[in-house]
Model the fold of this input.
Amino acid sequence: MYILGMESSCDETSASVVEIIDEKPYIRSNIVASQISIHKLYGGVVPEIASRAHIEAVSRITHEALDEAGIKISDLGAIAVTSSPGLIGALLVGVNFAKSLAYANNIPLVPVDHIKGHVAASYFADEALKPPFLALVVSGGHTSIYHVKDYTEFDELGTTRDDAAGEAFDKIARVMGMPYPGGAALDKLAYEGDPKAIKFPSPALHGDNLDFSFSGLKTSALNYINSNTQKGIDISYADVAASYTDCVVKAITSKVSDAIDKSGAKYFSISGGVAANSHLRSSLSRLCERKGVKFAMPEKHLCGDNGAMIALAGYYEYKKGNFADTYLNACAYSPLD
Ligand code: KG4
Ligand code: ZN
Done:
């Protein structure tokens, strides 16, 4: 069976064809049209510009995805589309396009939650991964730990009370003059600095919980940069990147460690754009090794937003019979939040 996955929740328009053979997923195409070059002029995503850019790209990239997979629209068994959460105007482009395509060609339409899509990327990483397991989703909009009960049913065990990890990386990177989104550049720069040079407050919340708060850390780093700059004191951006990254990685690793202990999970996965962070990947790999827990992590190109993860999450919704009709609407928040 072939499934078309469509993603337009933020600043990437993506369409992908995933083929399922004997319950195993194979990515036949995964076209991602990034809007980064447009938004970087403004230092962040401008929602109205994002919506327009999705409109310009959506038809072209869908045809590209079908062509690259070597199939026709009529070969599709389902069309899966991100319907929540995200920027509402951006989501609406994908939802309306998918609805029209499904209706005109009489193909089942499957709505997909973006967070479940990110988690589905882990199944490409490891064929043996099956629910139940523990999943961390770290992206520009989310930092949450889930108990994945079933392919389509998640319980949230912990989350951020304010900003997401990706947002916190991007903000500091921006203040240090790196273009949006600065997460990947900060990841690299962190290798050149001393992770112990500056003491920042941990985003891991105290107490018996699995929650985070990134706003205090963000403010503390901004104050460090601004006050030293105002005083004319030279600061090492590499040290800031290394110390800041170390602080985030330690906090996430410690909460994941608690989550593994509390849940008794034997399998753990990470996904979302920040899951591409090399420091986080090695710290969590080491943790899982120590605890004897199997670890699934998607290849870096499947960590960020892409249609393949939506197609696969859509396949699991399809199997559950979770279809939508032409009344499907987009929703800015996730029912998981
Ligand atoms: O999942 P994603 O593509 O979009 C959302 O759903 O938000 O995640 C984008 C986020 C951005 O904040 C970006 O800076 C961050 O992922 N990111 C990274 C790295 N690569 C991307 N953050 C830290 N280290 C990286 N290597
Ligand atoms: Zn995402």
Q: What stands out?
A: The two ends are 31 Å apart (CA to CA). The chain has a mean pLDDT of 97. The pocket of KG4 (ligand 1) is lined by residues 10, 139-141, 166, 169-170, 181, 183-184, 187, 272-274, 276-277, 304-305 (CB under 6 Å).
